[in-house]
Amino acid sequence: MLKEFTCIICPNGCGISADIEIKEGGDSLIRSIEGALCPRGEIYVKQELIDPRRNIATSVLVKGGILPLASVRLTKPIPKDRIFDAMEEIKKCCLKAPVTAGTVLVENILGYDADVIVTKSVPAGKLLK
């Protein structure tokens, strides 16, 4: 079976074709990978077939700050099928200003070795309009 991928690792966005065989039990055997302009493309396709992972960048509410939201992200990608579960946990969070970039908001989200960290400092004060 031929599967098509667009690599998201670097700006090249290579169109990659992988010839795979699905074995009993659902495991995939990769026969060939073509179209990757760099080694990272092949690594990306293998990861996508074995254990697809994604990162999250979003925002959380801030009370008492000059901005109503602070941006946050994961420190490492988590399994793709757990993204919505992670977002539910992040939505429960609310910060109190002042907020400092780099602050860990949630440690080991969903039991994975990935933290949710603040990426935008928000000083305390009157909300900017």
UniProtKB/TrEMBL annotation:
<dbReference type="InterPro" id="IPR036593">
    <property type="entry name" value="CPE0013-like_sf"/>
</dbReference>
<protein>
    <submittedName>
        <fullName>Molybdopterin oxidoreductase</fullName>
    </submittedName>
</protein>
<dbReference type="Pfam" id="PF07892">
    <property type="entry name" value="DUF1667"/>
</dbReference>
<dbReference type="InterPro" id="IPR012460">
    <property type="entry name" value="DUF1667"/>
</dbReference>
